[in-house]
Amino acid sequence: MERRLGVMGGTFDPIHHGHLLTAEEAAVQFGLDEVVFVPTGQPWMKEERDVSSPEHRYLMTVIATASNPRFSVSRLEVDREGPTYTVDTLRELKDQHGGNVDLFFVTGADAVLEIFQWKDPDEILELAHFIAATRPGYDLARFEAEEPTRHSNVSVMNIPALAISSTDIRERVREGRPIRYLVPEGVESYIEKAGLYR
Ligand code: ATP
Ligand code: MG
Q1: CA of 125 to the centre of ligand 2 (A)
Q2: From CA 175, how far away is CA 171, in angstroms rounded?
Q3: Mutate to test the pocket of ligand 1, among 11, 154, 187, 197 (most ligand atoms within 8 A of CB)
Q4: Which residues line ligand 1 (CB under 6 A)?
Q5: What is the enclosing helix (H) or strand (E) of 130?
Q6: Which of 20-24, 57-61, 96-100, 177-181 has the lowest mean pLDDT?
Q7: Higher pLDDT, 126 or 119
Q8: For residue 93, which of 43, 144, 34, 174 has the smallest C-alpha distance?
């Protein structure tokens, strides 16, 4: 049988319990053997703000996922020169497994609606099955009527809603408010030690 590999892409600036829960639920609900987290290199859609260095985001992702035997982290996008495109990442992950792999790209409902703005959307939807997790603030009825989600290679996944976002966490750190229980302890320590988001 083909290996069922989940791919959780994100900026992870920082990674939080919303990401971890989404990945775990995808693994359970879709019978995935592994979920690989892929922190972005230079995020070309988020150029309006300063994104922490890929190395910081990569390390926080490693710390957050270390205790889960089914989770791993890939440096594919972090090490790539120039802008990173999901289509290239999916191709490379497929190649790494000699083609013997079924890819499941896990995203929040907000991100899946952006697929058609990505590079080569048709090829992306052929390379991987898409799992779109419900996320607080997204109207599911409207969401399901959108074009990408009607595609046969996209499934909507219901998860317990966690209204956590990296944006809110960065704001909390800047304002000196707590982030405990929003991110894993090790990530909280890392943010403090590295002086991120101040
Ligand atoms: P930012 O606020 O900086 O955009 P974020 O919290 O949205 O950060 P990303 O790194 O942009 O985090 O998200 C990576 C992926 O995780 C996306 O597919 C996003 O939809 C999904 N995601 C993020 N937070 C949640 C959450 N609380 N529940 C479910 N999915 C989430
Ligand atoms: Mg986001």
Answers
A1: 20
A2: 6
A3: 11
A4: 10-13, 18-19, 22, 107-108, 110-111, 133, 135, 162, 164-167
A5: strand 128-133
A6: 96-100
A7: 126
A8: 34
Check if the beta carbon of residue 23 is closer than 8 Å to that of residue 6: yes
pTM surpassing 0.85?
yes
* Predicted local distance difference test score (pLDDT) of residue 58: 98
Distance from the alpha carbon of residue 85 to the mean position of ligand 1, in angstroms: 17
Candidate from 16, 19, 117 with most ligand 1 atoms within 8 A of CB, to mutate: 19
List the one residue out of 172, 175, 173, 44 whose CA is nearest residue 118.
Answer: 44
Q: Exposed/middle/buried for 152, CB within 10 Å: 0-12, 13-18, 19+?
A: exposed
Q: What is d(CA 112, CA 114) in angstroms, rounded to the nearest whole number?
A: 5
Of 85 and 36, the one with more pLDDT:
36
Residue 54 has pLDDT above 60, yes or no: yes
Contact 82, 42 (CB under 8 A): yes
What's the pLDDT score for residue 65?
98
In the reported structure, the alpha carbon of residue 140 is separated from the centroid of ligand 2 by a whole-number distance in angstroms of 17
Q: What letter would DSSP give residue 17?
A: H
Q: Is 79 helix (H, G, I), strand (E, B) or coil?
A: coil
From 15, 135, 196, 197, the mutation candidate for ligand 1 (largest count of ligand atoms within 8 A of CB) is: 135
Sheet of 71-73: strands edge to edge?
Answer: 71-73, 34-39, 3-10, 101-108, 128-133, 154-157
